Amino acid sequence: MKVRDRGIVVGTIPTGTKNCITDVDGVRVGHVTLDYTLDGDEYACTGVTAILPHEGNLFTEKVTAASYVINGFGKTTGLVQLNELGVLESPIMLTNTFGVPAVTQGTLQYMLERNPDVGDTTGTMNVVVGECNDSYLNSIRHFPVKPEHAIEAIQNATDQTAEEGAIGAGKGMVCFGYKGGIGSSSRVVGEYTIGCLVLSNFGKKEEFQQPRYCVSNKERVKALSETSDGSIMIVLATNAPLSDRQLVRVTKRCGIGLGRTGSHFGHGSGDIVIAFSTAHKIAHSHNQMLETRTQLREGHPIMNQLFTSAAEATEEAILNSLSQAVTTKGRNGQVVEQYPFGEGATV
User: Fold this and answer.
1) Which residue among the candidates 159, 229, 244, 271 is catalytic per the annotation?
2) What is the rounded CA–CA span in Å between residue 127 and residue 104?
3) What is the pLDDT of residues 15-62, one digit of tens each?
4) 135 included as an active-site residue
């Protein structure tokens, strides 16, 4: 159940039809969830989530992209080249911290099968992977995530409303001492849409801004107290014609939504935003010396509306990750409870 179904409305800008990142035309999301016993008290409680900007070949038809590091305690791949060139040429993949190498390999294998020229008659490929540490519930040292799980997540991607909560990369994540994971939301500004998907794994129970949402939490369910600073990955998609520099400006506003929920971007928290625009497809091979693109005028009032949308969608996506998650058991018999939404959860 999304938080709007509980009576919690975030902000004033209207949502898209699905209130999901897939409201941005062409964007697809896929998950693979690992949930099974390993040896002894060890447990696979993790997964992979894939976000695809469009249905075509992402290497031959790249999209404008950028990233912004709010706090850099993270182990991503691909962001250096992403920011240098301002383009995305692979799915955006999310997983656990120690799953990054396997997911990078699997995504690369998937893309190489569709682009036999890569590494031969053309250049290499930049794969983008983000992570959060799910080691409280997941036996991360056993490396349950394999390359084939990345391929499966990409193949599972659809443009339907994305599954949220303890699903995919969110299976083992903890948010404000309760079960977190995948959450999504969107905003519509005129003819443009901004969609946000988060992998939430941050915060202590005391930091959650319950009064802001008129949510009553009277210890009906015990929250964890021993979790670390944690992390959050934020993926922002839009069909607004923005340059990579303008995308950076928009991504910075995601930190506002994150902060409203209670985060202070802790020392050990990897708080990272990756954004892309589907307004243009950028051909990998072309002979022209010049290229022309349309972009929004910087001083137009719509820019402020997009800034507001990024903040609102991020905030609501985080709340949805809590609202959609279910109580989850992991390694050593450890359990993380669903946040006790219920009576009083109205605005």
Assistant:
1) 271
2) 6
3) 999 999 999 999 999 999 999 999 999 999 999 999 999 999 999 999
4) no
